[in-house]
Design a protein that fits this description.
By secondary structure, this protein is of the alpha+beta class. The protein has helices spanning 40-51, 74-85, 104-112, 150-160, and strands at residues 7-9, 15-17, 25-31, 56-62, 127-130, 136-140. The strands form 2 sheets. Strands 4-3-5-6 form a 4-stranded mixed sheet. α1 (40-51) links the parallel β3 (25-31) and β4. It is globular, with a radius of gyration of 14 Å. The protein starts with 6 loop residues before the first strand and ends with a helix.
Length: 161
């Protein structure tokens, strides 16, 4: 099993297969527009713009489980992120990342890369780096700035060539 075996919902409620990203390096992030870490959208966008043609896909999964910091509806989220942060990378449908209703993708990500204090997602902007084979390589804490991951992304992109 790999990340590419999962189906997710788009912000429009449509099913999307992550197999569409097969062969790409993925940076998967749970996001929230009202979070104090929301300025990370700018660096996520920078990574997206810099490396999308080399095989990187940044995927944002909005989540409202942490202090109600993603209160907007799915159909308003992409617009809020585009207007507020210039985001053009895919923002998928809002999900739960913890608990009984956690999205199956996030259950898998947490199993493959548990965090320092267990598998639970600590906060918004937890990041998972996935190689071009769909294997979860590493998990990064919410406070880890996206540009600090750049060297590891470049290594995976080089390896994928």
């Amino acid at each position: 099993m790999s990340v590419y075996d999962f189906q997710v919902k788009t912000s429009r409620g449509e099913q999307k297969s992550l197999a569409d990203y097969s062969g790409k390096v993925l940076l998967i992030v749970n996001t929230a527009t009202k979070c104090g870490l929301a300025p990370q959208f700018n660096d996520l966008q920078r990574l997206h713009e810099t490396y999308q043609n080399e095989g990187l896909a940044v995927l944002g999964f909005p989540c409202n489980q942490f202090a109600n910091q993603e209160p907007v509806k799915d159909n308003e989220m992409a617009q809020a992120c585009q207007l507020g942060f210039g985001v053009t990378f895919p923002l998928l449908g809002k999900i739960d990342v913890n608990g009984q209703d956690a999205d199956p993708l996030y259950k898998y990500l947490k199993q493959k890369a548990p965090g320092f204090l267990g598998s639970r997602i600590k906060w918004n902007f937890t990041k998972f780096l996935v190689d071009s084979e769909g294997r979860v390589v590493k998990r990064f804490a919410p406070a880890t700035k996206p540009m600090k991951i750049e060297a590891e992304i470049k290594k995976l992109l080089e390896k994928a060539k």
